[in-house]
């Protein structure tokens, strides 16, 4: 007679023999929504079934959800946002992902189960989003879906990421139209008396992003050695100003152009005078660009001042970010290597820098061909 097996302790599941001769294990496991439910596993022998029971218990101990049925996207996506994205990504990234989940993914794909989602479903989804909005929005929704399904693969909820099998839409690239050198000089001359003149110089000469300018602190600037450290940025999200890492979390230390030193020194003296006038109302924050009471400047107000100066100078209005493209164009035209331009501007990928580089090279090629025209005409 076979020896009687010991009873499993509480919480370790049970194994029973079915009427058809197979064995069945039952274990309470974690679900994607945080609840617990009973999961069944089957085997031809008691040992095979017991091995599966241990696998389920190991997943549960490690906090890995094991759905008793394939979760719907409307169940998985909120879980992914709260448990995966929110703890690890920046607030701006979370907000962007959440808006795509709420506006497009759940309404159009929410009823689909993870395991049954197919390539055709993803393709139809992208077509619907592109018709409703733009190719760029559809491409971004595709990226969010692909990222969410990759997380589901890592948690072993699905075996493949069907979003990777579907080519995303190809939006038309935005035509870069930064100011020419003459337009840039005209703007700097017109902005010389503006309280944010030093900020505009940093945007044009160093290509700093708006959030990086607003989040700049005096401790990040060494005027004597002409060095500037980009350590963070200031953004407004959900009605609150908050400090965050730079885009792509790419902190960098770059040389400070000589033309930036005098405006920054002038700005520091002006800020000291504002501190004296404010008296007890001054809120010391350490920011370079502040209001009359020491609080950080609103990112939106920086852009408003930028456009106001441009309009008063009779210049075409461009985005403040286009000044960053203008910086990249001038650096590239001056012969600076793309990799160096990438480090100065804090690009996450060399391909972004190469887009500007290609634009400048085409202009250089056009100039070279014009020289050939003159030479060949002279020979005839």
Summary, kept brief:
By secondary structure, the protein is mainly α.
Order of strands in the sheet with the most strands?
Answer: 1-2-3
Poorly predicted parts: none
Secondary structure: number of strands: 8
Coarse shape: elongated
Estimated helix fraction = 40-55%
| Mean of pLDDT | 85
CATH architecture of the largest domain: Orthogonal Bundle
Structural class: mainly alpha
- Name of the CATH homologous superfamily of the largest domain: Intergrase catalytic core
- Major beta sheet, specifics? 3 strands, antiparallel
Radius of gyration: 29 Å
State which percent range the strand residues make up.
Answer: 5-15%
Assign the CATH topology of the largest domain.
hpI Integrase, Chain A
Distance between the termini: 111 Å
Give the count of structural domains: 3
Summed up, the helix count is 13
Can you walk through the features of this model?
With 380 residues, the protein is mainly alpha-helical. The protein has helices at 46-61, 73-88, 91-109, 119-132, 135-154, 181-190, 197-206, 210-214, 258-278, 299-312, 320-333, 338-345, 350-379; strands at 14-17, 23-30, 36-43, 221-222, 227-230, 233-237, 240-244, 252-255. The chain folds into 3 domains: 12-60; 71-163, DNA polymerase, domain 1 (Orthogonal Bundle), CATH 1.10.150.130; 179-360, hpI Integrase, Chain A. Helices cover 52% and strands 11% of the residues. It has a 3-stranded antiparallel sheet with strand order 1-2-3, covered by helices on one side. A 3-stranded antiparallel sheet has the order 4-5-8, with no helix packed on it. A two-stranded antiparallel ribbon has the order 6-7. Helix 12 (338-345) crosses helix 13. The radius of gyration is 29 Å and the shape is elongated. The mean pLDDT is 85.
């Amino acid at each position: 007679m076979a020896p009687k097996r010991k009873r499993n302790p509480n919480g370790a599941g049970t194994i029973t023999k079915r009427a058809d001769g197979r064995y069945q294990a039952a274990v309470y496991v974690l679900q994607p929504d945080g609840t617990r439910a009973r999961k069944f596993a089957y085997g031809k022998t008691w040992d095979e079934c017991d091995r599966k029971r241990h696998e389920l218990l190991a997943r549960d101990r490690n906090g890995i959800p094991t759905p008793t049925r394939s979760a719907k996207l409307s169940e998985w996506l909120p879980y992914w946002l709260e448990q995966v994205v929110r703890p690890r990504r920046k607030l701006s990234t979370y907000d962007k992902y959440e808006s795509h989940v709420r506006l497009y993914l759940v309404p159009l794909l929410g009823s689909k189960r993870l395991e049954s989602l197919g390539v055709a479903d993803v393709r139809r989804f992208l077509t619907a989003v592109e018709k409703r909005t733009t190719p760029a929005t559809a491409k971004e929704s595709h990226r969010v879906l692909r990222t969410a399904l990759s997380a589901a693969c890592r948690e072993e909820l699905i075996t493949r990421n069907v979003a990777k099998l579907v080519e995303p839409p190809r939006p038309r690239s935005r035509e870069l139209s930064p100011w020419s050198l003459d337009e840039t000089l005209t703007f700097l001359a017109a902005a010389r008396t503006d309280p944010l003149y030093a900020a505009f110089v940093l945007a044009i000469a160093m290509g700093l992003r708006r959030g990086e300018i607003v989040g700049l602190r005096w401790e990040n600037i060494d005027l004597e050695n002409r060095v500037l450290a980009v350590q963070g940025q200031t953004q407004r999200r959900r009605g609150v100003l908050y400090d965050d890492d730079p885009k792509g979390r790419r902190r960098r230390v770059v040389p400070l152009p000589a033309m930036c030193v005098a405006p920054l020194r002038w700005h520091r003296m002006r800020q000291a005078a504002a501190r004296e006038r404010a008296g007890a109302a001054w809120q010391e924050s350490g920011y370079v660009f502040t209001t009359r009471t020491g609080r950080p400047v609103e990112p939106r107000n920086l852009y408003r001042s930028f456009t106001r100066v441009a309009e008063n100078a009779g210049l075409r209005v461009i985005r403040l970010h286009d000044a960053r493209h203008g910086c990249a164009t001038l650096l590239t035209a001056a012969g600076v290597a793309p990799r160096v331009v990438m480090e100065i501007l804090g690009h996450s990928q060399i391909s972004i820098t190469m887009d500007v580089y290609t634009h400048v090279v085409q202009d250089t090629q056009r100039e070279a061909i014009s020289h050939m025209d003159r030479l060949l005409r002279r020979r005839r």
